[in-house]
Design a protein that fits this description.
The chain has about 140 residues and is of the alpha/beta class. The protein contains five helices and five strands.
């Protein structure tokens, strides 16, 4: 049923992957699917904001995120699961949807934080991904849900 499963993670969260990676790994094992784990490093947006950071700062952030993501995956994903780590930069929900298309994901498994009133039912990135992705999206609620 599923061949490629994408799991976007927020590495700034101390609970990154705790709930989503086990679910995705079990789905991969059940269906013989490949796992793609993504972290999106937010960009600076306006060039005038970027000028206040040292040259090469974005590359350094991406390298640190890549190292952290690989370490997390090595610890949390069983060895029998075929996994690819991906680092992207830009708008979070847009990069998730775009990466899902690039890897031909047929399922995105992602966590949503506790919603605020303005978020209505699910977090803003999860809601946008669910609305714009061409594949199925499974939302795993964060703690307290």
């Amino acid at each position: 049923m599923f061949k490629d499963i994408l799991v976007p993670l927020d590495l700034n969260s101390e609970k990154a992957g705790q709930r989503t990676l086990p679910v995705a790994a079990e789905l991969c094992r059940t269906f013989g699917a490949r796992l793609h784990v993504l972290n999106v490093v937010p960009d600076f947006g306006l060039a005038m904001v970027g000028q206040y950071f040292p040259e090469g700062y974005e590359d350094k952030m991406a390298a640190q995120a890549d190292e952290h993501l690989h370490a997390l995956v090595k610890e949390a994903v069983p060895d029998d699961i075929q996994v690819q780590c991906i680092i992207a930069d830009g708008n979070i929900y847009h990069e998730i949807v775009e990466t899902a298309e690039k890897v031909n994901a047929d399922l995105i498994v992602m966590r949503s934080h506790r919603p605020e009133l303005r978020d209505y039912l699910i977090g803003p990135n999860a809601e946008k991904v669910a609305r714009h992705a061409d594949c199925s999206v499974m939302i795993i609620r964060g703690e307290g849900h």
